[in-house]
Write a structure and sequence with these properties.
The chain has 146 residues and is of the alpha+beta class. The chain contains four helices and seven strands. The protein has one domain: 3-Layer(aba) Sandwich (Aminopeptidase), CATH 3.40.630.30. Helix content is 32%, strand content 32%. Helix 1 packs across helix 2.
Length: 146
């Protein structure tokens, strides 16, 4: 059975490998410190998806008060990272994670959500478009009204 829940410190040991999968060039100790800071902040939130007892993915969302490419409002939500393990992709998990993040951002007063991606990540590009984002610039960034 699939579940999605807001991450806590109890999820730290399962989030670290997922973060390393998404950001392989980052040092593990730096990722651990980053995760600890995220989990203790009210401007960031992480949701974890699980299939039974296996962590299958996450979304890391922030509330930004600085400029977000393409945004018309502040504060603006931002997808800092979203990742689903390859064996669990194409099942809608990323969309359900995004919906969890969007709901929290709406409740926090955000009217839009932005995102970005590596230029050559076609899978991410396709996901953003299917999820309702529209291209807002050529860094590449996305924006979606909430």
């Amino acid at each position: 059975m699939e579940t999605i829940h807001t991450a806590t410190y109890l999820d730290l040991h399962e989030l670290l490998p997922l973060f390393r999968d998404l950001w392989p060039d980052d040092e593990p100790t730096g990722l651990h410190q980053t995760l600890t800071e995220i989990l203790s902040s009210n401007k960031f939130r992480i949701w974890v998806s699980r299939q039974d007892t296996t962590a299958t993915g996450f979304i890391y969302v922030s509330i930004r008060y600085d400029y977000v490419e393409g945004a018309d409002h502040s504060p603006t939500g931002f997808v800092e990272g979203i990742y689903v393990r390859p064996a669990f992709r194409k099942n809608g998990i990323a969309y359900r994670l995004l919906q969890a993040g969007e709901q929290w951002l709406r409740e926090a007063g955000c009217r839009q959500i932005g995102s970005d991606m590596q230029f050559d990540n076609q899978m991410s590009f396709d996901f953003h478009h299917r999820a309702g984002f529209v291209e807002a610039g050529r860094l590449i960034t996305f924006i979606k009204d909430l």
